[in-house]
Predict the structure.
Amino acid sequence: MTNLPALPKLLVAEAVRAALMEDLGRAGDITTQATIPAAVRAKAVIEARDDGVIAGLALAREAFAQIDAGIAFEPCVEDGAHIAPGVIVAHLQGSARGMLSAERVALNYLGHLSGVATLTRRFALKIVHTKAKVCDTRKTTPLLRAFEKYAVRCGGGANHRFGLDDAILIKDNHIAVAGGVVPALRAAKAFTGHLVKIEIEVERLDELREVLAEGADAVLLDNMPPEMLREAVAMVGGRMICEASGGVRLETIAAIAETGVDLISAGALTHSARAMDLSLDVVVGI
């Protein structure tokens, strides 16, 4: 799939190292040590048992490399590719011990991220007839956010902010404490630099009118039914980005997109994705 961001190598290496240390514990893979001689080499394949979209090959490769740099990992597909059950995802060759010790960490990353990419693709296909894009949220697995957001891109979705520090998103509780829409927006504009975008959440059209009078880069239209969303989009008239959020499901996203919004954010992309079923099978010892 073209136009995918590259995962930083240091980020991948650090995450995989922590995952391997968690799995190997204090004594390493004692099952493999007990049953497989150190000199034995093998060939293996990673095979898909599900239909879906692949994501996370870099993390799988890194898991094997950190256990044994001599293991050859040759992917047969690219991240973002849609595959069917029975497709070979990658070939491996090298230390049998190394493959078996890295197997679970590699497949955990690959299966989880492929699940996120697959669910995202299902959402994205529902709205291809509109201008809207489906995007993720911060409802991610702790310490896996960068990877899950990468998987969303693999599935054809877009990324929302990565954290609390890369954009201002004024939500209902900020508005309540700040004393209203206008005070919250004015405080945000006075605080931030010229390169930081400001988005504000509204639940009612009267709040939207205040936002339009005061100005913002984007407005989050929260839990509005389609008829209200359509009216809100007409009120905005292209003056700022319109994002819809709340109650977004596969069954509802098309109706939301057809109102004319630009973005539809769905926490389900990352917090409700089912992992893709993948297996590592040793073909033969060598």
About this structure: The longest helix spans residues 96-126. The chain has two domains: 9-124+273-285, 125-271. The CA atoms of residues 51 and 84 lie 4 Å apart.
